[in-house]
Amino acid sequence: MIQARITINKLNVLFEGHHALKDISVDIPEKKITVVIGPSGCGKTTLLKSLNRLIDLTEGAEISGQVIVDGVDVYDARVDVTDIRKRMGLIAQTPSPLPMSIYDNIAYGPRIHGAKDGSALDQTVENCLQIVALWDEVKGRLGEPASKLSVGQQQRLCMARTIAVKPEILLCDEPTSALDPISARNVELLLKMLKKDYTIVFVTHILSQARRLADYVIFLYLGELVEHGPAEKFFAEPTDARTKAYLEGAFG
């Protein structure tokens, strides 16, 4: 029995008649890496964006069902959507540093949420850069534009920026797809370290990456939840023929 941090109950998402997610019900365990896999167009990113209600920003999206976090349905009309998105930080496919300095990229979020003390902000910036193993690489040039960093460094900066507002859950949408193999490996190692403090939901189309990272696996196909379970059992003993075929490379 897993200790659920997120409970998804009969979640449906439609885009102008296209049924992107069909009656998804699954628990996402706390302080584990849950990897969402499946072929292109199966609903992986849609599921991810449904968790923190970024799906609301998609024109024509219709959502029904529940996403329950700590006993509260994020789709309840009384819920503060800004608070939901603060608690569930999204790390996107392509790093998108803000057009400002390295320092201000990380300080931006805390400032928006009311942080004003300069020394406290300095400490937040250093701590977050230490967490993503970027401090030693940039500590002498915090005032430089973030755009001067390499792509791999930019992705770690974006992770530091996400962590700076103290989320509880990290949503990762193929965050290594734009990175070289060494940078991608560094991000994977970082996420493995972070799971002791965060619940992580990670979307990938790379099966070898899923095998390296996953504690728990969700397999989607054509908008349906086909199979899910602890990673070791999922990869060793899949029960659905579609899962077996996907893992064997029959489609992707």
Please explain how this structure is put together.
With 252 residues, this protein is of the alpha/beta class. The protein has one domain: P-loop containing nucleotide triphosphate hydrolases (Rossmann fold, 3-Layer(aba) Sandwich). The chain contains ten helices and ten strands. The strands form two sheets. The protein has a six-stranded mixed sheet with strand order 6-7-8-3-9-10, sandwiched between helices. A four-stranded antiparallel sheet has the order 2-1-4-5, with helices on one face. Helix 3 packs across helix 4 (118-131) and helix 4 (118-131) crosses helix 6 (151-164). It is globular and about 55 Å long. The mean pLDDT is 94.
So what's the CATH class? Alpha Beta
**What share of residues are in beta strands?**
25-35%
Assembly context of the chains: single chain
Task: Give the overall form.
Answer: globular
Task: Looking at this protein, list some descriptive labels.
single chain; 252 residues; alpha/beta; Rossmann fold; 6-stranded mixed β-sheet; 4-stranded antiparallel β-sheet; 10 helices; 27% strand; globular
